[in-house]
């Protein structure tokens, strides 16, 4: 019953078979059921059958709804990273990321592999601080996920220019 910013919420809709479906793009037809984007709240809503009360009809919510929503968010984010690379808004590799941070219009998002060395991340963050840049950091993917999404081998560091894709990635990473 609380009011929250959309960046802190996930939208769900009732599917044709009366099953609850995660709608991470917030574009599916139907009345949206907005839930705080944290695992505990989602699991409580499923176990207490709160989706039926909110939808004002009998609906079924799968026990793994939180996992499904997380997978949908991850797929959207990885797709957005691939799109950013193809659009020329994303650079990969330590040296290219360092140049992107020192550029006239510096990168606004650093994407770091969760299994990457802490030393490289520390060096890039200190470089960003020296340049007066405070990029958002996304570190929820491991190197193999980033490599697969970006069509490159061994991706550990990436930087994304400011823009709508960067804003959407930051929002989705927060959720």
Explain what the structure shows.
The chain has 175 residues and is an alpha+beta fold. It is built from seven helices and seven strands, in the order βββαααβαβαβαβα. The strands form two sheets. A four-stranded mixed beta sheet has the order 4-7-5-6, with helices on both faces. It has a three-stranded antiparallel beta sheet with strand order 2-1-3. Strand 1 (9-14) and strand 2 form a beta hairpin. Helix 4 (94-102) runs parallel beside helix 5. It is elongated, with a radius of gyration of 19 Å. The relative contact order is 0.15. The mean pLDDT is 91.
Question: What is the compact description of this entry?
Answer:
With 175 residues, the protein is of the alpha+beta class. The chain is 45% helix and 15% strand. It has helices spanning 39-47, 50-55, 65-86, 94-102, 118-130, 143-150, 164-174, and strands at 9-14, 20-22, 33-36, 90-92, 109-112, 136-138, 157-160.
Structural topology:
Blueprint: E1 9-14, E2 20-22, E3 33-36, H1 39-47, H2 50-55, H3 65-86, E4 90-92, H4 94-102, E5 109-112, H5 118-130, E6 136-138, H6 143-150, E7 157-160, H7 164-174
Parallel strand pairs: 5-6
Antiparallel strand pairs: 1-2, 1-3, 4-7, 5-7
Helix pairs in contact: 3-6, 3-7, 4-5
